Amino acid sequence: MLQLKQIEKVFYQGTPDEKKAIQGLSLTLNEGDFVTVIGSNGAGKSTLLNMVAGVLFPDEGMISIDDKNVTFVPEHKRAKWIGRVFQDPMSGTAPNMSIEENLALALGRTNKRGLRRGVSSNRKKEFQQTLTDLNVGLANRLHTKVGLLSGGERQALSLLMATFTEPRLLLLDEHTAALDPARAEHITNITQDVIRDNNLTTLMVTHDMEQALQMGNRLVMMDEGQIIFEANEEEKRQMSVQDLVEKFQQIRGKALADDKTLLHK
Ligand SMILES: Nc1ncnc2c1ncn2[C@@H]1O[C@H](COP(=O)(O)OP(=O)(O)OP(=O)(O)O)[C@@H](O)[C@H]1O
After folding, report:
1. Whose CA is nearest to atom 6 of ligand 1?
2. In this predicted complex, what is the ipTM?
3. Which of 31-35, 121-125, 139-143, 228-232 bottoms out in mean pLDDT, i.e. has the lowest?
4. Residue ranges around ligand 1 (CB below 6 Å)
5. Is the per-residue pLDDT at 116 higher than 50?
6. Phi-psi sector, 198: left (phi>0), alpha (psi -120 to 50), beta
7. Residue whose CA is closest, atom 23 of ligand 1?
8. Of these four, 29, 78, 195, 212, which has the most CB atoms within 10 Å of its CB?
9. CA-nearest residue, atom 17 of ligand 1
10. How far is the CA of 189 from the centre of ligand 1 (A)?
11. Class of 2-96+149-238 per CATH?
C-alpha cells in the first residue's frame, strides 16, 4: 500500500554542515498495517514522515502509495490520501474557527463540494454523531472556537479531522507527547479505536517505547537515517522496553540516546 524504496535524504549537501538524514531506507506497509517507529534523537523519524507526506522530497529513491509513484507529488496534492496528526495540539486546526468549521475544512480538503456547501444540517448531525462516538465531551460544542479547547480536546479533534475523510494512510507524529499522562492515555485509546474501526494503514512515530510495543502490529527502530531493527506482532508481544534498549545497544554498540525517553522513564 505504501512503499519506500532506497530513500536517501541529505541536508546541506556539500557543505561542512552536511547531514545524511535518511540513508538507503526501504519500508513497505501492507493494507491495514499499523507500524510504530522509534529511534534515537535525530534518527530521521520526522524526516521520514515528512517525505511520506510530501513536505520534503527525497534526493534518491521512490515513494509509492497504492502503486502510484508519489515521490515528487507536493503535500497539498497528497492531502486527499493522507491524514496527519502532529505533536503540537496547535497544529492542524484553525484556532479562530469553530469545531464545526474545522471539521468542514477537513472535509473540504478531500472534497471540493464540502467547501462550497458549507455545513448542511445533515453534515452537522454527522459531525455530532462522530464526536459523540469519540466520547470526548465535544458533541454539544460544535460552535466553540477551537482555540478555547484543552490540548487533549484539540488532539482528539485533530485525530477526527485527520481520519474523518477516510485517508488511505494515517501519519501520527508523536501526537500524544505533549499531553499529560491521563490525557495521553485517553487519546491513545481513541487512536486505537479509530484505526481499528476504519482499518487505517498507519505510521506512528513515538518516543514512548511502551506505547510502541503495545500499539500496532509492527515496530521499526531507526538510527542514523536507517532502519536497524524490525519486529512483527508476535515478536513485539514478547518484548519489553528493556529488550528494546538492549537490542539497540547490541546492534549499534552504543546506548540509545533519546532525551525524551530517558526523561519519561
Ligand atoms: N530541515 C532540516 N534542515 C537541516 N537538517 C535537518 C532538517 N530536518 C532534519 N534535519 C537533520 O536531519 C537529522 C534527522 O532529523 P529528524 O528530525 O528527522 O530526526 P528525528 O528522529 O525526528 O529526531 P527527534 O526524535 O529528535 O525529533 C537530524 O540530524 C536533523 O538535525
Report:
1. 11
2. 0.96
3. 121-125
4. 11, 19, 21, 39, 41-47
5. no
6. alpha
7. 42
8. 212
9. 46
10. 29
11. alpha beta
